[in-house]
């Protein structure tokens, strides 16, 4: 049976890996960190570590028949590298595209810098749920002091927050998924006026954030995706893999 190389690290990626395990479809799941590996279903074969384009192409040449890109919709460079590597390796590639979360009536920014600029004009405390990698946009005097970054409970995430100058009392280290009720509790506990999120869709907890913001009476600021993508849903990719493998 054909072996699949799955680039995961997302909820859909984990769901796809779990489905292939259940169907006994040979699969290797690529994740960037050891933390990502701990989230994979038991028994999944994993490749751990960040790779550049050439390293991806070399891995693809080790007997795989299909590449599936189920990485985050904001991981633009990774997706570009996967696409180029698959072309270099001569392998077909499927891109899993997460549906937009919507968010009628919310504030919107084209990117993180735009979100930070908008927040400087808005009053009150801010809950940042955009991850730790781009927190530097918000680490400016007059804004950082009222920002509450919610990041993964990992040493490097905490160190990044502290290095950027966010007050220790403001840093929230927690692992999701987060229910609407938990989001509401955090918004009220820290008297949040604006919740900042990416358009992460259903698997990224967007609905729970949007509903929590509405219930808590705070604004929702959505950082738009880098651009529109062509691809398939989780169900469509499962159907295509089933067709190719005969399960």
Please render the helix and strand layout as text.
Elements: E1 4-7, H1 11-22, E2 27-31, H2 34-38, E3 45-48, H3 53-60, E4 66-69, H4 76-89, E5 93-95, E6 107-109, H5 112-119, E7 125-128, E8 147-151, H6 155-164, E9 172-173, H7 180-189, E10 192-198, H8 206-216, E11 219-223, H9 234-245
Parallel strand pairs: 1-2, 1-4, 2-3, 4-5, 6-11, 7-8, 7-10, 8-9, 10-11
Helix pairs in contact: 3-4, 7-8
Q: How many structural units, i.e. domains? A: 2
Q: Summarize model confidence as the mean pLDDT.
A: 92
Gyration radius, rounded: 19 Å
SSE class: alpha/beta
* Strand proportion: 15-25%
Work out the oligomeric state of the chains in this entry.
Answer: single chain
| Number of beta strands | 11
């Amino acid at each position: 049976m054909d072996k699949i190389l799955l680039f995961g690290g997302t909820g859909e990626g984990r769901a796809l890996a779990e489905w292939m395990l259940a169907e006994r479809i040979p699969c290797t799941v690529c994740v960037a960190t050891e933390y990502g590996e701990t989230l994979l279903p038991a028994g999944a074969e994993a490749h751990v570590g960040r790779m550049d384009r050439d390293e991806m192409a070399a891995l693809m040449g080790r007997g795989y028949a299909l590449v599936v890109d189920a990485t985050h919709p904001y991981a633009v460079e990774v997706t570009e590298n996967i696409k180029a590597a698959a072309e270099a390796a001569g392998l077909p590639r499927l891109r899993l595209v997460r549906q937009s979360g919507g968010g009628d009536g919310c504030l919107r920014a084209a990117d993180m810098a735009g979100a930070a600029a908008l927040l400087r004009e808005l009053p009150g405390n801010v809950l940042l749920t955009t991850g730790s990698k781009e927190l530097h946009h918000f680490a400016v005097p007059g804004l950082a002091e009222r920002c509450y970054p919610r990041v993964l409970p990992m040493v490097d995430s905490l160190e990044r927050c502290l290095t950027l100058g966010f007050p220790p009392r403001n840093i929230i280290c927690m692992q999701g998924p987060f229910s609407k009720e938990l989001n509401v509790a955090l918004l009220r506990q820290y008297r949040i006026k604006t919740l900042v999120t990416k358009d992460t869709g259903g698997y990224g907890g967007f609905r729970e954030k949007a509903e929590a913001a509405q219930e808590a009476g705070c604004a929702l600021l959505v950082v738009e995706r880098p651009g529109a993508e062509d691809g398939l849903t989780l169900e469509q990719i499962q159907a295509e893999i089933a067709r190719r493998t005969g399960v």
